[in-house]
Amino acid sequence: MTDRPPPRAPKSSRRRELLTFFILAFGIWPILAVGIVGGYGFLVWGFQIIFGPPGPPSH
Fold it and tell me: Can you give the pLDDT of all 59 residues of the chain as single tens digits?
């Protein structure tokens, strides 16, 4: 076993990895988060349309 440092990644690989990170961090994940929160809000809205808003039963 040798004590050589691991080989460095080629510049093109590093650039592609950085580009992938930025696309995920500022593109796909924010859109996915907004979609999930919006979908949850839509489900709550639909539930309240059918069953009424939460709270004590009205007299």
Answer: 678 877 776 778 999 999 999 999 999 999 999 999 999 999 999 999 999 988 887 65
- 3-class SS string, 20-35: HHHHHHHHHHHHHHHH
The structure tokens listed for 48 are 């309240």
- The answer to whether the predicted template modeling score (pTM) of the entire model surpasses 0.70 is no
Range of the domain at 24: 19-50
Look at the chain and report how many structural domains it folds into: 1
Residue showing tokens 């979908």: 39
Position 7 in a domain: no
